[in-house]
Structure formats: structure tokens, C-alpha cells
Design goal:
The protein is of the alpha+beta class. The chain has eleven helices and nine strands. Helix content is about 30%, strand content about 15%. Belongs to the protein kinase superfamily. CAMK Ser/Thr protein kinase family.
């Protein structure tokens, strides 16, 4: 049975093609039950890599069933056919992704950036409070609903963090993500704190929001890494950014993992808070670091933002009130070692994930232990 017939039997009228990868594609569809358009991810398990099926896929399914936040895409239904095809029904981001939005309209005004960044940060806090890390935060994975609100998507590299007896989170040894958004410790291929990695990526995203360009040129990873480790951040003068905005970015793009901000500190930062009073352009933060940085990177104002991840194929719209109960059932099945059921964002190509001559981001020096069970707290909604 073809995809249209399969979806029709489940109450969906298939629409246009939204994207396609090597073993997955995304179609739009109208849900006769929900009464609005959705995105349907169709995965061919026969074509998917073994690492993905055995490792990333079960993690993602477990996490998708847990998530319930207004700034995270909703998953409505997951089902699989006897021929090995998996269908995931999700929100449809009718306004596309943030990267395309900025490429089309240019840098955001700080007030608009503040609103969107607060939504994203609230979603990340919600995840981090559950000990869930995303590990692939980038503008392509931030979808926009009809009102241009942020919807965090693509949990294909996400995981639940284990805690040691001391209560500390264990380090991650799986090196994944996109080089342009990756923290220095990840680029260096050393074990890293995954929550702290997410914070660096948030800093890159906010820079792109307000500057309309990338903070670092990833065409030369070795050079980029040297600049990052020197804690150099160049802000285009023509953007006239407030001192507090630059201060926040500078402190998120902190190469020292012990001094990089945590998500609570980001949400409490004066720039993120409404009606915040601007800091002087050269104001120093509490660590004595100035947000005024040398103009040594030479980032031009009109820098073209290219997609550093070649396989973003998602779109969504408004959420239904609750996740379909089938999601939880599939998640439970995915926890079995021999079962690899479904994943939300699967069209990741090896070239997307390669850092510094690593053949694939899903290569790990050691498989992390199975994630510990944890109960989901009530939803914490962003603004």
C-alpha cells in the first residue's frame, strides 16, 4: 500500500512533499480528526542506518512521549506498517524555520529576538529540568507557527542524562550536532557536559537572531576553534546592539565550561527579562568580562547564512491539546533492546555531522548507559 493509502486509512489526506532524506521524507496532510494540517514524517526502517535504529531511535521515541511544552513541537500519533515504514504525525510549522526567516527578513529587532529567545530558553529549561538534552540546537530546528512563535523540533540527537552517585550528571561521549553551533569541547572530541553544550548552541542562535550572520566561520574548523578558545566574539557595529544583549551572548559563548551560563542564569539575565534596563556598551559582567570585544573576526554585516545542516525536513502548525496515547505505547516498545520503532527527525546525513575529520557524528568512544527512568513534571510554558 502506498503512503497516501496508508494515511487515508488513518484519517489523513496526504498533501505536498515538504522534504526528503536518504531514508525519510516529510509530507503535509490534513487530519480529519484534528481538523487542521499536520506534518507526517515517513521513515523506511529498511534504509535507516543500524546505529540510528539501535541507539538514537529508541531514545528519541522515549523522549517524544515525555515532552509537553508550548514551545516544543507536538507529536500527535506514531504508527508502523508491516513493511517496516514508520509514520510520525507532528505539528506543522506554517511559517517555516528560523534560519529561512532570518535569511529572508534579516536580523531581528532586539524586542522580537527577546521574545523568541525567551520561548526557546523556556523550552530548554523544561528539557534540562527533566535531565533531557537536545544536542542539536540550531536555527533550522526552530520552527515558527502561524503567529511566529518558536517551536523546538528534531530530538534525533537528544538523550536523558544519567546521574552519578554524587548527583552530578555523567559526561557525554557521543559527538553530534552541527559544527557551526558546536561548543569548543565538542569540536575537540573530548567528553563533555551535554547541558553546557546546549548553552553554547543557544549563544550561537541568539547571535544569529540579532546579527543576521554567523558568529564564527566554520570553513576552517581549526582556526574557528582557536578563536573560540580565545573567547573572541565580534559584533557588527552597524547592528547597534545593546550592551546587555552582547553581554548575554558573550557569556553563553564562554569556552570555559565552568564559567558558561546555566539555563536559569540565562532566563534571569537582565536582557531576557521584560523592560530590562540597558547596560552601557562596555559594561562588564559579574565575572569581570567585558561584552565589548575586539573587531578581529571581521564578520561582514551582510554575511550569508548558509544551512550548515543539509537535511532539515520538518514543518508544523498549531498543536492539539494532548499527545495521542499511541505515542506512549510506541515509546514503551522502543525501550526494549531488540526493538527500534520510530523517530521524529531522521534525515541526518553523515556529512552533516562530521567534525574535524570525524566520519560521522554518531560514532561514540563508548555507548552511554541506558537512561534512568524519571517522572515528567507538569508543563512549564514559555511566554
Amino acid at each position: 500500500m502506498d503512503d497516501a493509502a496508508v494515511l487515508k486509512r488513518r484519517g489523513y489526506i496526504m498533501g505536498i512533499n515538504l522534504g526528503e532524506g536518504s531514508y525519510a521524507k516529510v509530507k503535509s496532510a490534513y487530519s480529519e480528526r484534528l481538523k487542521f494540517n499536520v506534518a507526517v514524517k515517513i521513515i523506511d526502517r529498511k534504509k535507516a542506518p543500524t546505529d540510528f535504529l539501535e541507539k538514537f531511535l529508541p531514545r528519541e521515541i522515549e523522549i517524544l512521549a515525555m515532552l509537553n511544552h508550548r514551545s516544543i513541537v507536538k507529536t500527535y500519533e506514531i504508527f508502523e506498517t508491516s513493511d517496516g515504514k514508520v509514520y510520525i504525525v507532528m505539528e506543522l510549522g506554517v511559517q517555516g524555520d528560523l534560519l529561512e526567516f532570518i535569511k529572508t527578513r534579516g536580523a531581528l529587532h532586539e524586542d522580537d529576538a527577546r521574545k523568541k529567545f525567551h520561548q526557546l530558553s523556556s523550552a530548554i529549561k523544561y528539557c534540562h529540568d527533566l535531565d533531557i538534552v537536545h544536542r542539536d540546537l540550531k536555527c533550522e530546528n526552530l520552527l515558527l507557527d502561524k503567529d511566529f512563535n518558536i517551536k523546538l523540533s528534531d530530538f534525533g540527537f537528544s538523550k536523558r542524562c544519567l546521574r552519578e552517585d554524587s548527583g552530578r550528571l555523567t559526561l557525554s561521549k557521543t559527538f553530534c550536532g552541527s559544527a557551526a553551533y558546536a561548543a569548543p569541547e565538542v569540536l575537540q572530541g573530548i567528553p563533555y557536559q551535554p547541558k553546557v553544550y546546549d548553552i553554547w548552541s543557544l549563544g550561537v542562535i541568539l547571535y544569529i537572531m540579532v546579527c543576521g550572520s554567523m558568529p564564527y566561520d566554520d570553513s576552517d574548523i581549526k582556526k574557528m576553534l582557536r578563536i573560540q578558545k580565545e573567547h573572541r566574539v565580534n559584533f557588527p557595529r552597524s547592528k547597534h546592539l545593546t550592551g546587555e544583549c552582547k553581554d548575554l551572548i558573550y557569556r553563553m559563548l564562554q569556552p570555559d565550561v565552568n564559567r558558561r551560563l546555566h539555563i536559569d542564569e540565562i532566563l534571569n539575565h537582565c536582557w531576557v527579562q521584560p523592560k530590562a534596563r540597558s547596560l552601557p556598551a562596555g559594561a562588564s559582567n559579574k565575572e569581570g568580562e567585558s561584552s565589548r570585544t575586539p573587531d578581529t573576526l571581521g564578520v561582514p554585516d551582510a554575511t550569508t547564512i548558509d544551512k550548515h545542516s543539509a537535511t532539515k525536513v520538518e514543518a508544523r502548525e498549531e498543536a492539539a491539546p494532548k499527545i495521542n496515547p499511541e505515542v506512549a505505547a510506541v515509546a514503551a516498545a522502543a525501550a526494549a533492546p531488540a526493538v527500534a520503532s520510530v523517530a521524529l527527525e531522521v534525515s541526518k546525513q553523515p556529512e552533516n555531522m562530521a567534525f574535524n575529520n570525524k566520519p560521522s557524528a554518531i560514532e561514540a568512544t563508548k555507548e552511554e548507559a541506558a537512561e534512568s527512568a524519571q517522572q515528567q513534571p507538569p508543563e512549564t510554558n514559555g511566554p
